[in-house]
Design brief:
Jelly Rolls, RmlC_Cupin_sf (chains A, B), four-stranded antiparallel sheet, mainly beta, homodimer, about 45% strand, RmlC-like_jellyroll (chains A, B), lyase (chains A, B), EC 4.2.1.108 (chains A, B), six-stranded antiparallel sheet, about 130 residues
């Protein structure tokens, strides 16, 4: 059994961040669960465009508020505690945090290795490209 | 993109419950994400023994308090907001909710179909046994 505490990991190298967001990697590929699990905090007012071309991701809002827009058709959905979105079609999307930080529980399949960086197109590379790099 | 709201689903047949717990199925196998995602509430004071012999599960505590015990070796861990446990060895375990309801974000691989029931040994049947049933 693996037991980990977000409040401890957030001060370690399992927390990846930039000015707009922090992602704490609770489970990564090397945990061999078949998915990765992250607690991601997006700062109030921050604005993100992502396009996970090689991953499925589900995102559940624990706290905060914001909006997600499907960039292929312009549809916007309100994000509030209890709302989940799932990118089952590798959806190109824009996520904007409202006047509170968004705290989100995120699952990725295939699991994130922890070595990915967001590329210019908002995607993560597939794991086999990372291995070749 | 799939968008679902826990606060709507909890009043539908996506919520499965007994006297001790309620599990709201945010994502199931037929969503084709490769995992399922559930928000599970375990009533204060309730006591559960589970053994997912055919699934990996991670469980993240959103709110509440309790304890998990590894039944193979007796080790007990405190559960509080921010703590996650992952059953990476199909661990036989006992979960006891404390003086508040435990609200947990749960990921299963392989994804739960929604047709499983807990068997006497605390497991869910593998999906291929369900298909044969």
């Amino acid at each position: 059994m693996i037991v980990r505490d977000f409040n401890e990991l957030k001060n370690t190298n399992r927390a990846v961040s930039n000015e707009q967001w922090t992602s704490v990697r609770m489970l990564l590929a090397d945990d061999n669960m078949g998915f990765s699990f992250h607690i991601t905090t997006l700062k109030a007012g921050s604005d993100h465009t992502f396009h996970y071309k090689h991953h499925f991701e589900s995102v559940y809002c624990i706290s905060g508020n914001g909006q997600i827009t499907e960039l292929d058709n312009g549809t916007t959905h309100e994000i509030k505690p209890g709302v989940m979105y799932a990118l089952n079609e590798h959806d190109h999307h824009r996520l904007v945090a409202g006047d509170e930080d968004l705290v989100m529980a995120c699952c990725f399949n295939p699991p994130v290795t922890g070595k990915e960086v967001h590329r210019e197109d908002g995607s993560y590379a597939p794991a086999d490209e990372l291995e070749q790099a």
